Each structure stands twice: as C-alpha cells, then as structure tokens.
C-alpha cells in the first residue's frame, strides 16, 4: 500500500486516501489568487508539526512575506524555522538581482532555472518534504523539451535521489504555455479554478484532482474557501441541491 503524507487539509486528505503519496512529486496548478501558495503552506506546516524536515523554495515571495501570510491563516511557521526544521530558500532575491544586472548590461537575464536547480542540489539528504513555489517562473524562456527535461531532473533528484515528497506549484499561464508537460513528470496533479457558479452567480473557488496514481479518485469539482484558518473544502453539491439552495435564498431561507 502506498504510504501517505498528510496535506494539512483534512478534507483533501480524505480525497487522497490519507494525503500526498510519500516520496513522489505532486503538481498544483491554478490561476493567480486562487490559493496555490496556501496549499503549500498547509503542507509545510503539517509536515513540520509531524516532525518532518522541510525545505520551501520560494521563487515569487520573500520568506518574510510567506511567514506573515502563514501567520494570518493560523499556520505558525516561525517556530519551525527557529529550530531549523524548516528552511525557506531565498530565490526571489536572486531572480531580481539577476534581472537588474542584465538590465544594466543590456543583456538577457541569467536563467532562473539555474538558481532553482542549484537550490535543489543543495537540499540535504535528511529533508523529507520540499515545496517549490512557483516552478513556472523559469518556463517562459525555454523550449517545451528544455522545460520537461528540467522538471524531470528536479523530480528525479528530489524523489529518487533524496526520497523527498515534493509539491510543485505552478501558475496556469506557464502550465498552458508549456503544453501541460509538467503533469506527465508528476505522480499526481491537482487543479484549482475560479469561476462563476451558474446557480448563485457568484465567483467561487473549485478544486479537482485529474490525476493521482495509486489513489481511487472522484473527478467531481469541489468548492473550497479561504478562511481565517486556511483552506476549507466543502462537500460537492448536485445540480438539484444547487437549485434548492437558490430557491431557499429567494425565499429568504438558508440552505448549507
């Protein structure tokens, strides 16, 4: 039976037979603002709480900003940094420095992927969990084959080479520009969406799990909310249930 690592989100654990497959790489894709980073923070927080050693490679936010965001969701990560159970790698600063240097000399910026690959190779062998957010930042200046090769190398280095459970977080724009090849390099994928509910006419966040090997899946869309305590996934409703909800709302009632 496949071992699991809890995701930090109870409802997602139920959908995944206990959590992410241990020692494998899972991809989370979604548009800006849908909550991808929060899924990563939940995973790191729960893993640290369970005594696992974690590395978070942050390509778009500073460690300070991530800690503030986690704290606002009730996910205290500073305690784990203080005891060196969690390390947040500063890739954003390196990216900005490289871009500035390239602008000064009128040349293209050095490849960001080299920064991430360097950080991946430096991950200690005793690390259990690695989150890379956002892996799409180095996809834009590469061919599809080059990007696939980088993802495969990072995946192999971390999972096969070091035995880590890995969460790749990727923005939907980069995912589509690279012809969705990253899903083939991952053991599983989770897609986050924002769209209008046709029955309530409100924008809602949805989660679907199109692929997770060694896991019995339901392909339904589930609504999730970002609350003061982080992600909460709601039970999926049928069309008849949505219609009853609308009727109740029109009559001034409440139907949850």
What can you tell me about this protein's structure?
The protein is globular and about 60 Å long. The two termini are about 35 Å apart. Helices cover about 35% and strands about 25% of the residues. The strands form 2 sheets. A 9-stranded mixed β-sheet has the order 5-4-6-7-3-8-9-10-11, sandwiched between helices. It has a two-stranded antiparallel sheet with strand order 1-2. The protein has one domain (about 5-250): P-loop containing nucleotide triphosphate hydrolases (Rossmann fold, 3-Layer(aba) Sandwich), CATH 3.40.50. The model is unreliable at about 100-105 (pLDDT under 50). With about 260 residues, the protein is α/β, with parallel strands linked by helices. The longest helix has 18 residues, at about 145-160.
The strand line-up of the biggest sheet is: 5-4-6-7-3-8-9-10-11
- The first-to-last residue Cα distance is 36 Å
> Which sheet architecture does the biggest sheet show?
9 strands, mixed
Assign the structural class, choosing from mainly alpha, mainly beta, alpha/beta, alpha+beta, or little secondary structure.
Answer: alpha/beta
Determine the number of helices (DSSP H or I, runs of at least 4 residues).
9
Q: Would you tell me which CATH topology applies?
A: Rossmann fold
**Morphology:** globular
- Low-confidence runs (pLDDT<50, min 5 residues)? 100-105
Reading off the top of the CATH hierarchy, the class is best stated as Alpha Beta
- Number of discrete domains: 1
The string of secondary-structure elements, in order, is EHEEHEHHEHHEHEHEEEEH
Radius of gyration, CA atoms, in whole angstroms = 19 Å
In terms of DSSP E residues, the strand content is 15-25%
* Strand count: 11
């Amino acid at each position: 039976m496949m071992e699991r690592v809890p995701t930090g989100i109870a409802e997602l654990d139920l959908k995944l037979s206990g959590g992410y497959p241990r020692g494998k790489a899972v991809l989370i894709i979604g548009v800006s603002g849908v909550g991808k980073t929060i899924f990563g923070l939940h995973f790191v927080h729960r893993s640290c709480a369970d005594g696992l050693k974690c590395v978070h490679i942050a390509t778009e936010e500073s460690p300070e900003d991530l800690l503030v965001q986690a704290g606002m969701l009730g996910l205290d990560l500073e305690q784990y940094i203080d005891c060196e159970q969690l390390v947040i790698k500063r890739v954003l600063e390196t990216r900005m420095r490289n871009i500035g240097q390239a602008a000064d000399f009128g040349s293209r910026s050095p490849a960001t992927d080299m920064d991430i690959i360097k950080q991946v190779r430096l991950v200690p062998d005793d690390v259990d969990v690695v989150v890379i957010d956002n892996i799409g930042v180095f996809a834009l200046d590469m061919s599809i084959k080059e990007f696939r090769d980088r993802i495969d190398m990072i995946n192999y280095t971390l999972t096969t080479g070091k035995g880590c459970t890995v969460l790749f977080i990727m923005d939907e724009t980069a995912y589509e520009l690279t012809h969705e090849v990253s899903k083939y390099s991952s053991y599983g994928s989770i897609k986050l969406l924002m769209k209008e509910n046709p029955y309530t006419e409100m924008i809602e966040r949805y989660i679907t799990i199109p692929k997770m090997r060694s896991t019995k899946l339901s392909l339904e869309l589930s609504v999730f909310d970002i609350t003061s305590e982080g992600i909460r996934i709601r039970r999926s409703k049928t069309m008849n249930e949505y219609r009853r909800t609308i009727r109740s709302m029109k009559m001034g009632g409440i139907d949850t």
